[in-house]
């Protein structure tokens, strides 16, 4: 009887031991699988497009490493390329005038994108209506590499949304500098419209009131004294 009890206990202990081992490996196998899945997700390609207007160059980064560098054409005077941080929200295969490829950006104040051109001699110059032009062979390569949602950063000079310096803004103008003025005047309680990046009547009325309140010359244009009164400086 004593031997039978010990054998039963031994069998129970052995069974518990085996089940513990099975449970241990099952749990750890799931942990390993989960870790591998998360690691694989973290290893997914992450692209960033950085465009320097002043350099007339587009850089493509993959996981923080620059893997491509392309020459571009940018907006001509009066038609600036959209400075700021955007995303690719459209990919289309347009006609020959656009080199067969179009990468549309989510810019508030117009239809801007990266595309090819039938005038490849313009690459390296300020020649477009604000879009970024590339050699046709280059846009086809870039198009195949980057997915929808890719971040696009466009820079031009040391003054952020003001690029190389202040523009004299007038009604009808559009751009990152107009957007910056709208945002600042909204912060100051003068502008109550939608920050569209377009100088329209609602912004003009806000500018008039701001100029009156700050003893500035009341005019439709926005010039250096107005920028300075808003707290902007070309020496920031």
TrEMBL record:
Keywords: Cell shape, Cell wall biogenesis/degradation, Glycosyltransferase, Hydrolase, Membrane, Peptidoglycan synthesis, Transferase, Transmembrane, Transmembrane helix. Residues 47-155 form the L,D-TPase catalytic domain. InterPro entries: LD-transpeptidase, LD_TPept_cat_dom, Peptidoglycan-bd-like, PGBD-like_sf, PGBDSf, Transpep_catalytic_dom. GO terms for biological process: cell wall organization; peptidoglycan-protein cross-linking; regulation of cell shape. The chain crosses the membrane at residues 9-27. CDD domains: YkuD_like. Coiled coil: none annotated. The active site is at 115 (proton donor/acceptor), 131 (nucleophile). GO terms for molecular function: glycosyltransferase activity; peptidoglycan L,D-transpeptidase activity. Pathway: Cell wall biogenesis; peptidoglycan biosynthesis. GO terms for cellular component: extracellular region. PANTHER family: L,D-TRANSPEPTIDASE (PTHR30582), L,D-TRANSPEPTIDASE ERFK_SRFK-RELATED (PTHR30582:SF24). Belongs to the YkuD family. This is ErfK/YbiS/YcfS/YnhG family protein. It comes from Ruminiclostridium papyrosolvens DSM 2782.
